[in-house]
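Re: that backbone. Tokens:
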């Protein structure tokens, strides 16, 4: 196996905050990019600080320098770093980049090959272009909350920061595409997305139901929007998700439940009938499923090829034998936290290591070493640290 990671020749300057931007940069860092996290002396936006699970998960495989971009001297340092950088990533409100000197035209004038990756709340311009955005606002504006949950309970947010994470993944894909395109054009690009754009893109076929057919999707709880039966059902000791919506799967499902008569029952014999009689069918299915345990039904139904699985808590997920086999939680030693486990990258590439190489950095942990690598001399470094433009911990400065 090659020890050289795919993005080892890429240098990334990370100006991101909160979750969406750091998610994009984490993708680049995981595959070997040299990520320099530029942090404000005032601190970031991560709840719980650098020892929180969120911070530890978002910022692994990165290095940290504390640099005050509000000072002209700090912006000058940043611009010198841009000269030899490949990518700059930010996710602040749209006007901030112009104020602090990392808008695309400014960066391009310094380094025509640099790629700027940006995430905003709602787009870089337009009626909402200057608004700050957070995940739940994008979930509501982008339509997700209108199709999540049960109609009688009103709109419901997804249980994860889905627009944040999706925007991060979309930006990472865009940055990688721009890096590939740069081989032929020799030019950098401005790659940008937003929580809103990514959220609407994530709506996928639910959005297409409206754009193509003017079908405005309703809330359907834990049921599939169009296929029956496909959803969540109670068992004797919990819940099960199953998908037996047609053809052989429906027939095998009926046989395993001991309800072969449903196969020819006019209410349930075809997909239209099952959809029309969804509530009645659901009640009948649940009457059968509550006669046995989740574990038993999962084993029985999988044996006859009907897709199904338990509804886990997060703790149960990481105790699941398949999840343990996939090694989604990887160990790493942290200077202050000791031995911890954090999530590995979910993508696998044959012949390329998927290990976490280093834990999230302490604030300013690598300030001195980073300045030296970008060509700053001893006198310059001394001046920058003395003036407070760069902060260095004497024990962790390299």
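Recovered sequence:
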């Amino acid at each position: 196996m090659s020890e050289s990671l795919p993005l080892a020749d890429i240098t990334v300057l990370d100006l991101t905050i909160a979750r969406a931007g750091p998610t994009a940069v984490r993708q680049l860092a995981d595959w070997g990019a040299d990520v320099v996290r530029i942090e404000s002396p005032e601190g970031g936006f991560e709840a719980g600080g650098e020892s929180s699970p969120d911070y530890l998960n978002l910022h692994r495989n990165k290095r940290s320098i504390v640099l005050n971009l509000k000072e002209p001297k700090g912006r000058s340092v940043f611009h010198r770093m841009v000269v030899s950088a490949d990518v700059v990533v930010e996710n602040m409100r749209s006007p901030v980049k112009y104020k602090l000197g990392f808008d695309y035209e400014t960066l391009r004038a310094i380094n025509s090959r640099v790629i700027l990756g940006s995430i905003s709340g709602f787009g870089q311009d337009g009626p909402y272009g200057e608004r700050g955005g957070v995940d739940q606002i994008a979930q509501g504006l982008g339509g997700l909350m209108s199709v999540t949950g049960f109609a009688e309970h009103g709109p419901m947010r997804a249980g994860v920061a889905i627009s944040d994470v999706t925007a991060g993944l979309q930006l990472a894909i865009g940055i990688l595409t721009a890096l590939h395109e740069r081989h032929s054009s020799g030019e950098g690009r401005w790659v940008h997305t937003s929580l809103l754009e990514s959220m609407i893109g994530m709506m996928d076929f639910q959005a297409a139901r409206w754009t193509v057919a003017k079908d405005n999707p309703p809330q359907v709880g834990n049921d599939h929007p169009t296929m029956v039966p496909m959803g969540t059902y109670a068992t004797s000791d919990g819940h099960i998700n199953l998908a037996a919506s047609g053809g052989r799967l429906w027939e095998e499902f009926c046989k395993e439940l001991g309800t072969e008569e449903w196969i020819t029952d006019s209410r349930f014999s075809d997909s239209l009938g099952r959809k029309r009689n969804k509530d009645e069918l659901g009640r009948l299915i649940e009457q059968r499923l509550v006669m046995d345990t989740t574990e038993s039904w999962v084993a029985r139904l999988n044996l006859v090829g009907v897709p199904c699985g338990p509804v886990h808590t997060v703790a149960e997920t990481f105790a699941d034998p398949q999840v343990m086999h996939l090694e989604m939680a990887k160990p790493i030693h942290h200077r202050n936290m000791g031995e911890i486990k954090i999530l590995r990258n979910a993508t696998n590439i044959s012949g390329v290591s998927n290990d976490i190489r280093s834990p999230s950095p302490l604030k300013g942990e690598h300030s001195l070493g980073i300045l030296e690598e970008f060509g700053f001399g001893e006198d310059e470094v001394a001046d920058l640290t003395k003036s407070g433009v760069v902060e260095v911990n004497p024990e962790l400065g390299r």
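The chain has a mean pLDDT of 95. The domain at 11-203+327-391 is CATH 3.40.50.10540 (Rossmann fold).
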